[in-house]
Amino acid sequence: MTVIAIDKELCTGCQECTKVCPAYAIEGEPGQPQTINTDRCVMCGQCVQKCKAYLSVWEHGKEAYEAKKRERGLPQSVREPLFAAYNVCHLNELKDALADPEKYTVVQAAPAVRVGIAEDFGMELGTLAPGKLAAALRRLGFDKVYDANFAADLTIMEEGTELVQRVKDGGVLPMFTSCCPAWVTFMERNYPEISDHLSSCKSPQQMGGAVFKSYGAHLDDVDGSRVYSVAVMPCTCKEFECNRVEMRDSGWKDVDVAITTRELAYLLKEKGIDFNSLPEEEFDMPLGDYTGAGAIFGVTGGVMEAAIRTGYELITGEAIPDVKVEAVRGTEGFRTANVKVGDLTLKVGIVTGLKNVIPVIEDMKAGRLDLHFIEVMTCPEGCVSGGGQPKLLMDTLVPEAYGKRRAGLFAHDEALPLRKSHDNPAIKKIYEEFLEKPNGNIAHHLLHTKYCGD
Ligand code: SF4
Ligand code: SF4
Asked: Whose CA is nearest to atom 8 of ligand 2?
């Protein structure tokens, strides 16, 4: 499937995209239209963020602009320049589903969306807006506004338990996180020999989808076949992920369509929903309940920090002295930390920016790496800087925007009453009522997978 494309009619061959592509997937001569080698592309969308060659109504005329919009399936509400590098838009599928009375539509939004979406409505960079986001999704007509942050808490229960088991039982280490589909794809294509190092956990998006169509459908007294599951993501690769053949353990496609933060803004504008004036609303319970640990999944090091908060208590049976795990925060491309967990010194690594994982893997293969657990995120500062986030037209704004989006998620974590995934009452309830226990049979069937490549 095509997720990311470069429009030959618009590309000027400036090769700015080539410089940011972490997979060396963009090919072509300087000054000539570039092409994407789909065997290498991991669909991260960083080229989409960087591209500066565009078609605008002012320069090229209204007719050409509208024709290009139609060609790309973009809604009428789009007013911005159309860039050469773009991600394929899936809003028409979503609009059809929302208009279909037979479908029971549920939606989840990733942590980073709540610090990105407001920017597309003229608000300050990195504005934290979970309440308006929930209200906006409800105004679009979704039957349930659940949340990917709940699924992030669920991921920590599963991934933390998997890590503890691997450490205790002498399993394959280091274990790598598996929540970034661009990273998973990169590993499958380039380093399949280390795939047993990858956590078997699905990403929060896919765990959410599997749960919404099973447990969620049961709670809402709806047949799972009617549930249409939508994900709003900061990430262009998530549409690829939800179409993977492995992602159908609920009995149906676990997530039917994934749209980006930018596309959500297009849709809200098309429907005349004024984001800025929306009231603060809550996500729907119980599958929209979340802790601060779920919220920080959107920043580099956040999955690691959330896992340590829960892993510490799983291993020691005691409360972690400080939920803020400063040692794993930061934005360096590769950083390591030793974290004391009872008698164990947990050795962890965090990679942000996919290119930075290559020397880590090479060191691991050469026996030069002594770590238990490694988080890998493809985008420069984690999902807050994802390819589907609002596009920053001026490069000078990039550091400020990323910094403010990260700060927004950390502030959200600090303000939430619960900050550890295992304290989430909805997480406790789903294990009591349905999943039985982390890494148990039901959880394994629905929430884990064996990645098998394209
Ligand atoms: S989507 Fe990512 S991997 Fe693919 S060409 Fe663009 S920057 Fe490279
Ligand atoms: S870091 Fe986040 S936004 Fe970027 S490719 Fe991975 S999951 Fe997607």
From this structure: 235
